[in-house]
Design goal:
It contains eight helices and two strands; from the N terminus they run βαβααααααα. By secondary structure, it is mainly α. This is PiggyBac transposable element-derived protein domain-containing protein.
């Protein structure tokens, strides 16, 4: 089948498009296949899905829960590494030094950088302005409060 080129295309692209394009039709072995394909287009997808063969579901073993406690041998619970603290930790005298040992300066700086970004995402009208010093003070207050609570709990446990 020959398809002539429109005059609008000639005007847009010049006279180089004067060739004719040939389209070849591919014939199938049987006409029933083409009829079947045409018929499938009119069937809803939900019905086609229902026609697909179903896979058999594999049965899974369900856990059976019991009311008993977990029994673990002592050798699985025992800490096998050294319980001796490193020399660097023994030399720390204050909670601040301890904090600085575990929280690197770059970690605190990253938290200070990310905090305003997060606060603006949550409440665009209220930007959080935070410094590393303020973050250190906040963490110090949290640690101080935890120490107070733990000493109160110890007093309650011992009955003093």
């Amino acid at each position: 089948m020959d398809i002539p080129v429109d005059s609008e295309e000639e005007a847009a692209f010049g006279s180089d498009l004067q060739e004719n394009i040939t389209i070849l039709a591919v014939e199938t072995d049987s006409d029933s296949e083409t009829d079947n394909l045409d018929g499938e287009d009119s069937i809803p997808l939900s019905e086609l899905l229902n026609r697909l063969p179903r896979r058999k579901k594999q049965k899974t073993n369900h856990s059976i829960w019991t009311e008993t406690n977990l029994v673990v041998p002592d050798e699985n619970i025992t800490f096998l590494s050294s319980v001796e603290l490193p020399r660097e930790l023994k030399e720390l005298n204050s909670a601040y030094q301890f904090l600085k040992y575990f929280l690197a300066e770059e970690t605190l700086t990253d938290v200070v950088y990310q905090s305003p970004l997060y606060s603006v995402q949550k409440q665009p009208d209220k930007a959080l302005l935070l410094t590393v010093k303020q973050l250190e003070q906040f963490i110090g207050c949290c640690i101080y409060r935890i120490c107070q609570l733990s000493s109160c709990l110890q007093l309650e446990i011992t009955g003093i």
